[in-house]
Amino acid sequence: MKKKYYLIVYALSFAFFLAVGLMQKTPGYMDASYYYATGRQLASGEGATEPFIWNYLNDPKAIPTPAFTYWMPLSALLAAFGMWITNSDSFLAARLPFVMLAALIPCLTVYFVSKVTTRKIYFGLAAVFGLLSGSYLPYLSITESFTPFFVLGAIFLLIAGRVLEIENPKKIMGFQYLALGAIAGLMHLTRADGILWLGGGFLVVMFVWLQRGKTVGNLKQSTIELTLIIAGYLLVMSGWFLRNRVLFGSIFPEGSNLAIWFTRYDDLFMYPARSLTFSRMVETGLSNILRVRARACLTNLETLIGVAGNVVLLPFMVIGAWKEHKKALTRLFLVMLSMLFLLMAIIFPFAGYRGGFFHSISAFQVYLWMLAIIGIETMVHWSVRKLKWVETKARTLFVVVLILGIAGMTAISYINKVQPASGTWDLDYSNYRLLADELQKLSGSSDFRVMINDSPGYFSATHKEAIQLSSGTIQDILELTNRYDIDYLIVDKDVPESLRSLYDAPGDQAEYSLVEEFGSYLIYNQE
């Protein structure tokens, strides 16, 4: 397809994502609030700091605390860039780079499809896939990791495809290998599981080595290519590792490995985090450990079918993958997808089924849409051969039905999540501001700290310091209250099970006194 058409697709896509995103006036939930808040800190010159604490895995010493000890920084850097170039700290300014990146998704989808067909009807279908994007639409124009992962994953597979399909495998494609490493580094800088894509770079080198033949000379050549990938990765990540080394004494923050020992999702907010150990996990019993991982497998499979496969596209994706399974790039794709599935089901099951797999699989989505179009064309040929359909009419029928199908699923997903008519998406932000105003009246001061169920969201909305409601006992909460000089404990319906009595039986408990019921919140302070 000609360059001018890509420019047209990009311009239309930018307008579409901007228009859709304007119905979401606030981040809407914790992850997006976190990247917006930390991006705002960076843009305002406050540095990589968090004026809130949202987990206790690295045992934060005080407020503010160093940022990005659990989540990675690239989305916050993008948000900061948007605020810096517009000289504004608004959410609209922060999301501008995300809208710009989201507009690349239809273009990348069209480009991938142009490598397997010249039919313009499929170029249009590819653009529609990238625009509507199914369950991902509510997340592509906000401050989240979905959009950079979408784009970076597609670019990684694009470059990998060029390397794997080179006619003369004896040639070292230095720039391409360096680029693969750099893209893997950017993906790691976006999400912790992005390091999987460095492994993807290693797989590319291995596939090329197998194509060349397993000789000592070819092994030396592959070693050079592997070195280039590592060099590209370190080119991006070395500054990050150095920062961590200076702040924490190691290239990874303290506590970043504790997620392996979770026995429930709420362990993410456990205090003290030192209780998260291998022995504690083992004590839950083998049957429970296996049950949790079986549940994660099932949930991730549902995500694969319903989100990545958009339900209606999944059969065509499977057909396309089968038709392309002999190609090295499709094999790389299938191996990496399997690795991600196992990582999010076996090693990190709680992160996996609570949204981690949903986030991470976005990197494969553009390639999946390409496979779907290959599958559609395969079914068109089958219908002509077996059912005696007219080819052009069969192709048009498949395309129209699938556009209607994905449009319907996208609309349902967007409306259910965002609920633009009722403003549900922005409700928490409004409530946090009202709550802060009420607390200011109660305290007679604007200088107070709270413990609340979404500390990044509360800080983003109010600019007031907060810490996360721990999933520990009431005694642990008391320790946190004293340690971080917390004035008010805020409880709502999403309180952790260990603290359920504070919400279900409101009133004075332990050393806490019920101050006020304000809307859906119960306000406590320490006696």
Would you mind describing this structure in some detail?
The structure is a single chain. This protein is mostly helical. The protein has 21 helices and eight strands. The strands form two sheets. It has a six-stranded mixed beta sheet with strand order 2-5-4-6-8-7, with helices on one face. A two-stranded antiparallel ribbon has the order 1-3. Helix 9 packs antiparallel against helix 10. The longest helix has 33 residues, at 216-248.
Rounded to the nearest angstrom, the distance between the terminal CA atoms is 70 Å
Structural class: mainly alpha
Proportion of beta-strand residues: 5-15%
- Average pLDDT over all residues: 92
Global geometry:
globular
Question: What's the number of helices?
Answer: 21
Strand order of the largest sheet: 2-5-4-6-8-7
* Strands, count: 8
In N-to-C order, the SSE pattern is HHEEEHHHHHHHHHHHHHHHHEHEHEHEE
Q: pLDDT under 50 segments (min length 5)?
A: none
* Largest pleated sheet: 6 strands, mixed
Helical residue percent band: 55-70%
Return Rg in Å.
Answer: 25 Å
Structure in a nutshell:
By secondary structure, this protein is mainly alpha-helical.
